Amino acid sequence: MITMHNHCSRNAAAGTEHGFSLIEVAVVLFIIVLLLGSVLVPLTTQVEQKQISDTEKTLNEIREALIGYAVANGNLPCPDTDTNGAENVTVATGVCSTIAGGIAAGRLPYTDLGLGNSDLWGNRYTYVVNAVYAQRSPAAPFALSSAGTNVRICTTQACTTTLSTTAVFAVISHGKNGAGAINFLTNVANTASASADEQDNYGADADVVYRPPISGGPATSEFDDIVIWLSRYTLFNRMVSAGKLP
Fold first, then answer.
1. Cys-Cys crosslink for 89: which of 40, 41, 78, 175, Cβ 3.0 to 4.6 Å?
2. Other beta carbons less than 10 A from residue 92's beta carbon
3. Structure pTM?
Protein backbone atom coordinates (compact mmCIF):
# COMPACT_ATOMS: atom_id res chain seq x y z
CA MET A 1 0.00 0.00 0.00
CA ILE A 2 2.82 2.31 0.79
CA THR A 3 4.57 1.54 -2.49
CA MET A 4 1.39 2.22 -4.48
CA HIS A 5 0.92 5.50 -2.67
CA ASN A 6 4.41 6.67 -3.58
CA HIS A 7 3.91 5.65 -7.20
CA CYS A 8 0.68 7.62 -7.44
CA SER A 9 2.31 10.65 -5.84
CA ARG A 10 5.10 10.58 -8.41
CA ASN A 11 2.58 10.37 -11.23
CA ALA A 12 0.57 13.24 -9.79
CA ALA A 13 3.69 15.35 -9.46
CA ALA A 14 4.74 14.51 -12.98
CA GLY A 15 1.33 15.55 -14.25
CA THR A 16 1.72 19.07 -12.89
CA GLU A 17 5.06 19.76 -14.49
CA HIS A 18 3.82 20.63 -18.02
CA GLY A 19 3.95 24.36 -19.08
CA PHE A 20 1.88 26.57 -21.41
CA SER A 21 1.97 25.71 -25.09
CA LEU A 22 2.97 28.35 -27.65
CA ILE A 23 -0.65 28.62 -28.76
CA GLU A 24 -1.80 29.32 -25.20
CA VAL A 25 0.90 31.98 -24.76
CA ALA A 26 -0.09 33.60 -28.06
CA VAL A 27 -3.74 33.71 -27.01
CA VAL A 28 -2.86 35.33 -23.68
CA LEU A 29 -0.65 37.93 -25.38
CA PHE A 30 -3.39 38.67 -27.91
CA ILE A 31 -5.88 39.28 -25.11
CA ILE A 32 -3.40 41.58 -23.33
CA VAL A 33 -2.85 43.57 -26.54
CA LEU A 34 -6.61 43.97 -26.99
CA LEU A 35 -7.02 45.15 -23.41
CA LEU A 36 -4.14 47.62 -23.73
CA GLY A 37 -5.50 48.91 -27.03
CA SER A 38 -8.92 49.52 -25.53
CA VAL A 39 -7.28 51.64 -22.83
CA LEU A 40 -4.64 53.50 -24.85
CA VAL A 41 -6.86 54.61 -27.76
CA PRO A 42 -9.40 56.41 -25.54
CA LEU A 43 -6.50 57.85 -23.52
CA THR A 44 -4.93 59.28 -26.68
CA THR A 45 -8.28 60.73 -27.69
CA GLN A 46 -8.69 62.28 -24.25
CA VAL A 47 -5.24 63.89 -24.48
CA GLU A 48 -6.02 65.34 -27.91
CA GLN A 49 -9.40 66.66 -26.73
CA LYS A 50 -7.69 68.27 -23.74
CA GLN A 51 -5.19 69.96 -26.05
CA ILE A 52 -8.00 71.31 -28.22
CA SER A 53 -9.94 72.53 -25.17
CA ASP A 54 -6.85 74.23 -23.73
CA THR A 55 -6.13 75.88 -27.09
CA GLU A 56 -9.70 77.18 -27.34
CA LYS A 57 -9.34 78.64 -23.86
CA THR A 58 -6.05 80.32 -24.79
CA LEU A 59 -7.57 81.73 -27.98
CA ASN A 60 -10.41 83.25 -25.95
CA GLU A 61 -7.79 84.86 -23.70
CA ILE A 62 -6.05 86.20 -26.80
CA ARG A 63 -9.33 87.71 -27.99
CA GLU A 64 -9.77 89.46 -24.66
CA ALA A 65 -6.17 90.70 -24.78
CA LEU A 66 -6.73 92.16 -28.25
CA ILE A 67 -9.86 93.93 -27.04
CA GLY A 68 -7.94 95.25 -24.04
CA TYR A 69 -5.17 96.48 -26.34
CA ALA A 70 -7.73 98.36 -28.45
CA VAL A 71 -9.32 99.91 -25.36
CA ALA A 72 -5.93 101.05 -24.08
CA ASN A 73 -4.49 102.27 -27.39
CA GLY A 74 -7.45 103.19 -29.58
CA ASN A 75 -6.46 100.63 -32.22
CA LEU A 76 -5.78 96.95 -32.70
CA PRO A 77 -2.14 95.87 -33.13
CA CYS A 78 -0.66 95.16 -36.54
CA PRO A 79 0.55 91.61 -37.24
CA ASP A 80 4.10 90.49 -36.62
CA THR A 81 5.56 89.92 -40.09
CA ASP A 82 9.23 89.34 -39.20
CA THR A 83 8.72 86.72 -36.44
CA ASN A 84 10.23 88.72 -33.57
CA GLY A 85 6.96 88.77 -31.63
CA ALA A 86 6.30 92.51 -32.09
CA GLU A 87 3.87 94.23 -34.45
CA ASN A 88 5.20 95.65 -37.70
CA VAL A 89 3.89 99.17 -38.27
CA THR A 90 5.22 102.05 -40.35
CA VAL A 91 5.58 104.79 -37.74
CA ALA A 92 5.69 107.62 -40.28
CA THR A 93 2.27 106.73 -41.68
CA GLY A 94 0.68 104.95 -38.72
CA VAL A 95 -0.40 101.94 -40.78
CA CYS A 96 0.64 98.30 -40.80
CA SER A 97 3.80 97.57 -42.76
CA THR A 98 2.22 94.88 -44.92
CA ILE A 99 -1.32 95.31 -46.24
CA ALA A 100 -2.99 93.45 -49.11
CA GLY A 101 -6.53 94.22 -50.17
CA GLY A 102 -7.23 96.11 -46.95
CA ILE A 103 -6.11 93.16 -44.80
CA ALA A 104 -2.96 92.92 -42.68
CA ALA A 105 -1.92 89.31 -42.07
CA GLY A 106 0.97 87.69 -40.26
CA ARG A 107 1.66 86.27 -36.82
CA LEU A 108 0.17 87.34 -33.51
CA PRO A 109 2.35 90.09 -31.92
CA TYR A 110 2.60 88.26 -28.60
CA THR A 111 5.16 90.59 -27.00
CA ASP A 112 2.85 93.60 -27.49
CA LEU A 113 0.03 91.65 -25.87
CA GLY A 114 2.10 90.05 -23.10
CA LEU A 115 1.08 86.55 -24.15
CA GLY A 116 2.70 83.19 -24.79
CA ASN A 117 4.64 82.87 -28.03
CA SER A 118 3.14 79.71 -29.52
CA ASP A 119 0.35 77.16 -29.30
CA LEU A 120 0.60 73.76 -27.60
CA TRP A 121 2.25 72.29 -30.69
CA GLY A 122 5.02 74.90 -30.82
CA ASN A 123 3.67 76.96 -33.72
CA ARG A 124 2.96 80.67 -33.91
CA TYR A 125 -0.62 81.89 -34.12
CA THR A 126 -1.73 83.43 -37.40
CA TYR A 127 -3.36 86.86 -36.98
CA VAL A 128 -5.51 88.54 -39.64
CA VAL A 129 -6.90 92.06 -39.10
CA ASN A 130 -8.90 94.73 -40.90
CA ALA A 131 -6.04 97.20 -41.56
CA VAL A 132 -8.21 100.25 -40.84
CA TYR A 133 -8.74 99.04 -37.27
CA ALA A 134 -5.01 98.69 -36.70
CA GLN A 135 -3.99 102.15 -37.91
CA ARG A 136 -3.03 104.94 -35.52
CA SER A 137 -1.75 108.54 -35.58
CA PRO A 138 -0.86 110.19 -37.89
CA ALA A 139 -3.50 108.05 -39.65
CA ALA A 140 -7.04 108.37 -38.32
CA PRO A 141 -7.88 105.79 -35.60
CA PHE A 142 -11.01 103.76 -36.22
CA ALA A 143 -14.43 105.15 -35.30
CA LEU A 144 -18.01 103.90 -35.26
CA SER A 145 -18.24 104.86 -38.92
CA SER A 146 -15.07 103.01 -39.94
CA ALA A 147 -15.42 100.34 -42.59
CA GLY A 148 -12.30 99.04 -44.28
CA THR A 149 -12.10 95.38 -45.35
CA ASN A 150 -13.61 93.02 -42.82
CA VAL A 151 -12.30 89.53 -42.22
CA ARG A 152 -14.76 87.01 -43.63
CA ILE A 153 -15.31 83.76 -41.70
CA CYS A 154 -16.31 80.93 -44.03
CA THR A 155 -17.14 77.24 -43.72
CA THR A 156 -14.92 76.33 -46.70
CA GLN A 157 -12.19 77.87 -48.82
CA ALA A 158 -14.76 78.55 -51.55
CA CYS A 159 -16.72 80.59 -48.98
CA THR A 160 -20.13 79.65 -50.35
CA THR A 161 -21.40 79.87 -46.76
CA THR A 162 -20.28 82.62 -44.39
CA LEU A 163 -20.44 82.65 -40.60
CA SER A 164 -19.42 86.30 -40.30
CA THR A 165 -18.80 89.17 -42.68
CA THR A 166 -18.10 91.76 -39.96
CA ALA A 167 -15.06 90.35 -38.17
CA VAL A 168 -12.30 92.90 -37.51
CA PHE A 169 -9.77 90.17 -36.74
CA ALA A 170 -9.28 86.42 -36.58
CA VAL A 171 -6.63 84.37 -34.79
CA ILE A 172 -5.76 80.83 -35.88
CA SER A 173 -3.96 77.94 -34.22
CA HIS A 174 -2.98 75.49 -36.94
CA GLY A 175 -3.69 72.52 -34.69
CA LYS A 176 -1.84 69.29 -34.14
CA ASN A 177 -0.73 68.85 -37.76
CA GLY A 178 0.59 72.44 -37.81
CA ALA A 179 0.42 72.50 -41.60
CA GLY A 180 1.63 75.81 -43.05
CA ALA A 181 2.22 77.38 -39.64
CA ILE A 182 5.45 79.13 -38.62
CA ASN A 183 7.34 76.99 -36.13
CA PHE A 184 8.39 79.07 -33.13
CA LEU A 185 11.82 77.48 -32.67
CA THR A 186 12.93 77.51 -36.32
CA ASN A 187 10.89 80.50 -37.61
CA VAL A 188 10.37 78.39 -40.73
CA ALA A 189 7.02 77.45 -42.23
CA ASN A 190 5.95 73.86 -41.67
CA THR A 191 5.09 71.63 -44.61
CA ALA A 192 2.20 73.06 -46.57
CA SER A 193 -1.22 71.47 -46.22
CA ALA A 194 -2.87 69.52 -49.02
CA SER A 195 -6.22 70.85 -47.81
CA ALA A 196 -7.52 74.01 -49.48
CA ASP A 197 -9.37 74.93 -46.29
CA GLU A 198 -6.16 74.81 -44.22
CA GLN A 199 -4.22 76.64 -46.94
CA ASP A 200 -6.71 79.49 -46.72
CA ASN A 201 -5.89 79.96 -43.04
CA TYR A 202 -2.23 80.78 -43.53
CA GLY A 203 -2.78 82.93 -46.60
CA ALA A 204 -2.91 86.73 -46.66
CA ASP A 205 -6.46 87.35 -47.86
CA ALA A 206 -9.62 88.32 -46.00
CA ASP A 207 -11.08 84.81 -45.83
CA VAL A 208 -10.61 82.49 -42.84
CA VAL A 209 -12.10 78.98 -42.64
CA TYR A 210 -13.83 77.71 -39.52
CA ARG A 211 -15.42 74.27 -39.54
CA PRO A 212 -15.45 70.97 -37.61
CA PRO A 213 -12.17 69.02 -37.67
CA ILE A 214 -11.59 66.10 -40.03
CA SER A 215 -8.67 63.69 -39.75
CA GLY A 216 -7.78 60.21 -40.91
CA GLY A 217 -9.26 60.63 -44.38
CA PRO A 218 -7.82 62.02 -47.62
CA ALA A 219 -5.13 64.67 -47.08
CA THR A 220 -7.17 67.11 -49.16
CA SER A 221 -9.97 66.93 -46.57
CA GLU A 222 -7.74 67.32 -43.50
CA PHE A 223 -8.68 70.14 -41.15
CA ASP A 224 -7.71 70.69 -37.51
CA ASP A 225 -7.32 74.47 -37.30
CA ILE A 226 -8.80 76.19 -34.25
CA VAL A 227 -10.14 79.69 -34.92
CA ILE A 228 -11.56 82.67 -33.02
CA TRP A 229 -12.71 86.03 -34.35
CA LEU A 230 -14.37 89.25 -33.20
CA SER A 231 -17.22 91.19 -34.77
CA ARG A 232 -16.55 94.91 -35.09
CA TYR A 233 -19.88 95.54 -33.33
CA THR A 234 -18.66 93.61 -30.28
CA LEU A 235 -15.50 95.74 -30.37
CA PHE A 236 -17.62 98.89 -30.64
CA ASN A 237 -19.65 97.77 -27.63
CA ARG A 238 -16.53 97.23 -25.53
CA MET A 239 -14.98 100.53 -26.63
CA VAL A 240 -18.16 102.50 -25.91
CA SER A 241 -18.53 100.83 -22.49
CA ALA A 242 -14.94 101.86 -21.73
CA GLY A 243 -15.62 105.45 -22.77
CA LYS A 244 -13.26 105.23 -25.78
CA LEU A 245 -15.96 105.69 -28.43
CA PRO A 246 -17.55 107.61 -29.99
1. 78
2. 7
3. 0.83
